[in-house]
Amino acid sequence: MPNPSPVLTALAVATALAAPAGPATAAPESAVPPKTMAELLAASADTDWRRLDPSSTLYLDLDAGRVIIELAPRFAPRHVANIIALAREHYYDGLAITRVQDNFVVQWGDAQRPLKGAARALPAEFTRTVDPAAPFTRLPDPDGYAPVVGFSDGLPAARDAAGATTWLAHCYGTVGVGRDNDAGSGSGAELYVVIGHAPRQLDRNITVVGRVVHGIERLSALPRGGGPMGFLDATATGAPIHSVRLAADLPAAQRLAVEVLRTDTPLFTRLVEARRNRTDDWYKVPAGYIDLCSVPLPARISAPSPAGSD
After folding, report:
1. Of 2.60.120.200, 2.40.100.10, 3.30.70.100, 3.10.20.580, which CATH number belongs to 54-254?
2. pLDDT, tens digit, for every residue of 158-190?
3. 3-state SS string over 269-280?
4. pTM of the entire structure?
């Protein structure tokens, strides 16, 4: 890990004191303190943002409002297709949140509910072969769980040392597929969302299908389950799920125009550096380091929300 506050050695100090003073020169660009995240975002251009693709965007509607999930078809194509099929057959409608484990996950689904056409189980999609066409923005710091980490398609991702295999990481807001001990027992009929500290030990052990980009607070603020591992006991009623819909299947007037910050731009690189070395007046010791799940992935509503949809 880089030293957050380099200290001159005694020899360097002596050399510096003995050197004659020269004319003042402008500080190199690398020495100019980075702007804060708020300043960078305020100065962003429209090209620094991307609109969510309606064909890979899910709307989870609860009493508290709408939760928007961006799916990851490049990383889990079969599971994403199955989840879309489940949404189109209204499988999730009328279900409820079944698990709210503090500092871990929110979960919903019913593995026994009849299906109309979607698959009951699929082969695991824990990792993928790296697509050469896939964008990948590498982070500058090492990671304890993978040789290489960064962002691909706007999602926190990791790669092996050879750069041949990739997978999505379990960060706050990650959406994954519940399964039994059999790696191929999941289908998307049961889903979970990370609402706590990044459980990176789950990486490459569960199929990750996307992340929440808007409304995560509507899940993380739910009352915790009283049973083992945060499951609701028989006397509790979980938050009802009104519907889960693919954005592309709704009229345009019923969609939210959500944009997320691109992760393949110079602005994003500056944002990462601003978070690695905080220059806010409050910070006295810049960390000089940032881990994958601490990199912010901002989203914004780029147009007024339709009445009642948020």
Report:
1. 2.40.100.10
2. 999 999 999 999 999 999 999 999 999 999 999
3. HHHHHHHHCCCC
4. 0.87
